[in-house]
Amino acid sequence: MHGIRETKDLVLSADGQDQHSLKLFRDQVAGDDTPDQSATGTSGSKLTDPNGLDPGGASAVDRFGRRLRMWGELVKYRLSCHVLSHLRLFKAVFAVLRVVRPIAIVGNVLVATKASDVREVLERFDDFELGDTIEPGMPWGPFLMTVDGREQHAREREMLQSVVEKTDARLIRTIASENCQSCIEALKDSGQIDVVADLAEPVMVAVLAEYFGVPPLNGDRQRMAGVMRNLAGIIMVNPPVGSLPWSRSRADIADLTCQLTQQLGSGGPTTAAASHPSIPAHSLLARLQRRHGQPGNPPWFDEEWIRCYLTGLVATGGATIIRGVTHAVDQLLEQTGALPHAQELSAALERAIHHDQTSITADAPNGQLAAAREALRGCIYEAMRFRPMLPLLVRTCPRDTIIANGTPRARRVPAGTLVLAPPLAAMFDSEAFPDPLTFRDRPIESYFHFGFGPRHCFGKYIADVVMLEIVRALMRLPGLARAPGQGGQVGYDGPAPCSLRVTFNANGSEPVH
Question: What is the pTM of this model?
Answer without folding.
Answer: 0.85
